[in-house]
Each structure stands twice: as structure tokens, then as C-alpha cells.
Amino acid sequence: MCRWAAASILLAVPGCGGETTFGFPDGATEQGRRIIDVWGVFMIAALIVAAIVYAGIVWSLIRYRRRRDDLDAFGHQFHANIPIEIAYTAVPVLIIIGLFWISLDADNDVRELDPQPDVVVEATAFSWGWRFEYPELGVVVVSPPATRDEPGPEIVLPLERTTRVELTSNDVIHAFWVPSFNFKMDAIPGHVNEFDLTPVEAGTFRGVCAEFCGIQHAYMTFRVTTVPTAAFDAWIDDRATVGATTG
Fold this sequence. Notes:
This protein is of the alpha/beta class. 34% of the residues lie in helices and 25% in strands. The protein has four helices and eleven strands; from the N terminus they run H-H-H-E-E-E-E-E-E-E-E-E-E-H-E. A hairpin with a 2-residue loop joins strand 1 and strand 2.
């Protein structure tokens, strides 16, 4: 369903847009593309407001500029205009309410958990690395020692399938952030944050810890590779008999 329709009514944007991402990542998951919809709405709202403000400034500069033949004129002074005051108070409030509703609706969609995910990955962050376990498939991937030249561990997710990530930390607060997914979630000690990822674009995407966590924070990276289901099954089969693997 096109979520831009409701925003179009509010912001007078015809159709469903989606032709541009305004420089933001397209979103390699369904959840990421839902987020880019919201970013697009906010960008269009900002452009409309900016156009109105700058048009008002330019019009005022031209309309009320000092005339050469009337150098002492200051223009007509007035102290109140109730309709204008109501308008410039009510309109921003309505815009904020509309943007809040759009954001809340998208947040609910992104955080919604599939009752039957296709794959489960238990992700545990630690200083300064990651442990990814596929508990139902018998695969564990652990970070090698964090260094400048080490790309970090690689996990594989199936395209067009829902992966449940159960994220936690065993020491301090870290964060699971894949910029190409338009998604970030904190890894909190003693707490499990659950979220779903449904990849829709094949490729290898860089992930990082997005919470400063110590001296090796910059090297706490990982990679997410999304592949067709057959390739994912083959990857699982190659590693299921090995046990925990590094990198």
C-alpha cells in the first residue's frame, strides 16, 4: 500500500512520489524503504515551508523597500492582525501533528515483528566485536580481534525472507547500524532488543557500532551479505558442521 497518499493530502504533494530519495540510501530492506518514505515526506515538507518563507522574505524586500522619492517614509505601522496570528499558529501545529502521525505509523511498521520469522539471528555485541548465532541452524560467527585492516565478521541473510535479530550486549552499550538498511538499534547489557529485517536488494553491506564504546570502537565493524534462498542454504550447510567460525 502506498504510504505517501496520506502525506500527499497533508502536504499537497500529488501522487505517491518515490522517484527520488533526496540523496538518502534507497534502503536495502523493506523496513529501510519504509523509512525512506518518511524521510521523503519530511524533505518535501521542509522544501514547501522553505519556499513559503523565502518567498515572503523576497516579497517583503521588494514590496516594502525604501523609495528614492520618499526617503523619510517608514511605512504604515500596525500592532495586531488576528487572522494572520491564528493562521501562523494553527498551520505549523497541524503540520507537526501530521508529521508526527506519519512518523508514528512508520515506526510501528518498522518495529512490527513477524510471528513466524524465517530465520533467527542472536547478535551479541562486546568490546570490540560481534557474536552472531543462528540458533535454529547451528551456525555461529564471531569477530576476529578488532584492527584497522580487519573488515569484521560476515553474516548472510536470505533475500525476500524475514530475519529476526535478537540483539544484546555483554558489557557496555553498543549499537547495530547498517547505513544501507536505514536502520539502527542499540545493544543494551541485560536487555534484548528484537527487530525484523527483510532484505530486498542483493549485496554486501557494511555495518558498524554507532555508540562510542571505547578505544577500538572505530574498528567494531561487520558485514551483512544478502543472497537468494538457495545460496543462503548453501552457506548454512557449509558452516553448520564447522561450529563457531571467526570472520
